[in-house]
């Protein structure tokens, strides 16, 4: 089964994003970056 970034991403509306504090925004960005890196690394392994 394939997993896409959209399968593991969480999206906020502009109104929801505005309610987040700076620490929450930074955490969100960090977690999404880690998810992206994991998916990319899995894709590279599958291509070998």
From TrEMBL:
GO biological process: regulation of DNA-templated transcription
Coiled coil location: none
Domain of life: Eukaryota
Entries under InterPro entries matching the protein: KRAB, KRAB_dom_sf, Krueppel_C2H2_ZnF
Gene3D superfamilies: 6.10.140.140
Pfam families in the cross-refs: KRAB
Occurrences of domain KRAB (ranges): 3-48
Listed PANTHER family: GASTRULA ZINC FINGER PROTEIN XLCGF57.1-LIKE-RELATED, KRAB DOMAIN C2H2 ZINC FINGER
Name of the protein in question: KRAB domain-containing protein
Source organism of the structure: Chelydra serpentina (Snapping turtle)
Phylogenetic classification of the source organism: Eukaryota, Metazoa, Chordata, Craniata, Vertebrata
